[in-house]
UniProtKB/TrEMBL annotation:
Pfam families xrefs: Lipoxygenase, PLAT
Primary location recorded for the protein, binned into one broad class: cytoplasm
Organism: Myotis lucifugus (Little brown bat)
Site feature location: Essential for stabilizing binding to COTL1: 99
Binding site residues for Fe cation: 360, 365
UniProt keyword Oxidoreductase present: yes
Statement: the UniProt record of this protein carries the keyword Transferase: no
Protein name: Arachidonate 12-lipoxygenase, 12S type
InterPro entries for the chain: LipOase, LipOase_C, LipOase_C_sf, LipOase_mml, PLAT/LH2_dom, PLAT/LH2_dom_sf
Cofactor note as given: Binds 1 Fe cation per subunit.
Coiled-coil annotated spans: none
């Protein structure tokens, strides 16, 4: 009984507003009332209304909303709705933070975070069960590849639940970066179409366009051992480097390499011997791309840390020993420059593969996806975790 002040906040994302009409109901402990507003939510706006309600609704528990459309269902990203009243009654907030689509009635509970045992009111318990049932129909599990973590059931980005997709602005930004990158590659391809590449300096032909200081430094010094070592801690994959506690068993030193063994042992004694072992890549079949067989190596790199802090490679073994093949060759900084550079390039290639598949795709994307899907399926919107999440 009395006057209520209602505020409806719409998201600031691109396309968050809607020209469809929104209808609202207040649901209190003693009753329910429909509001007579004709809301067409605008992007990034908080729209305020007042309404007198003759009935005594009691403490507000839920807010119901429905978006009507005639021809076009224009999705609306609702941030939250706050209701204050009647009189000096405290303000109740109903967080939404999702896309509202279709013509179904959406019920938003009052937003105080509650665990299951704290929702003593039967209405909240019922809402919680209903919400989890709905979520488990929307967020389903799928197996992408046997042996890998489960994923969300969706064949492409288009099949994802609306709230799991990129927001408009982020999607446009992503697509724009992709398109400009592709355009740059095409331009460089056309530019170099008629020139053959005969030396490493010919790479300069494609090294133009906007560049950072670091990019320029890498361009100047990519062949140096110092930059090669630096990348194990400052490159894309700083996860693999280990201080050696013994000489790795896979490092078979043929006769004639006693001097190298002595150097390695000296560094080991000093605690300045480091190793990067890509053994995880051993035995993985490589792809065939556009009819061309690709190759994967599983190298081992031994490095020493100089007193100045520089990390320098001492020896590279491209493949681990295998009983059916001769002892794998070892590459040294004293080898002919191109042979040594090629060995380092194979290591960089393996570093890229391991970083992308293990540390990036598996440990970040796939692991995060399992947690995200399980959270959406098992925890209702009122769970305190969503206060942190949003
Ligand atoms: Fe990624």
């Amino acid at each position: 009984m009395g006057r209520y002040h209602i505020q409806v906040a719409t998201g600031a994302w691109l396309f968050s507003g809607s020209f469809n009409r929104v209808q609202l109901w207040l649901v209190g402990e003693f009753g329910e009332a429909e509001l007579e507003l004709q809301l067409r939510p605008a992007r990034g706006q908080v729209e305020a209304f007042e309404q007198d309600i003759s009935q005594d609704l009691g403490p507000l528990q839920f807010l119901k909303l429905r978006k009507h459309h005639s021809l076009v269902d224009d999705a609306w990203f609702c941030d939250r709705i706050t209701v204050q009243g009647p009189g000096a009654f405290r303000e109740a907030t109903f967080p939404c933070y999702r896309w509202v689509q279709g013509e179904g009635v959406l019920t938003l509970p009052e937003g105080t975070a509650r665990l299951a045992e704290e929702s003593t009111l039967d209405e909240f318990q019922k809402h919680r069960k209903r919400e989890l049932k709905e979520r488990q129909l929307i967020y389903c599990w799928s197996t992408w590849k046997e042996g890998l973590p489960l994923t969300i059931a969706a064949d492409s980005e288009k099949d994802l639940p609306p709230d799991m997709k990129f927001h408009g602005g982020k999607r446009l930004n992503y697509e724009w970066t992709e398109k400009t990158g592709l355009l740059e590659m095409i331009l460089k391809r056309v530019y170099t179409l008629l020139n053959s590449w005969d030396s490493l300096e010919d790479f300069d032909q494609i090294f133009w366009g906007p560049k950072s200081t670091l990019c320029e430094k890498v361009h100047q010094r990519w062949q140096d051992d110092e930059l090669f070592g630096y990348q194990f801690l400052n490159g894309t994959n700083p996860m693999l480097l280990r201080r050696s506690t013994s000489l790795p068993s896979r490092l078979v030193l043929p006769s004639g390499m006693e001097e190298l063994r002595a150097q390695l042992e000296k560094e080991l004694q000093n605690g300045s011997l480091f190793e990067a072992d890509f053994i995880l890549l051993d035995g993985i079949p490589a792809n065939v791309i556009q009819g061309e067989q690709q190759y994967l190596a599983a190298p081992l790199v031994m490095l020493k840390m100089e007193p100045s802090g520089k990390l320098l490679p001492m020896v590279i073994q491209i493949q681990p020993p295998n009983a059916s093949y001769p002892t794998p060759p070892l590459f040294l900084p004293s080898d002919p420059p191109l042979a040594w550079l090629l060995a380092k390039s194979w290591v960089r290639n393996s570093d890229f593969q391991l970083q992308l598949f293990q540390y990036h795709v598996l440990n970040t994307h796939m692991l995060a996806e399992v947690i995200a899907v399980a959270t959406m399926r098992c925890l209702p919107g009122l769970h305190p975790i969503f206060k942190v999440h949003t």
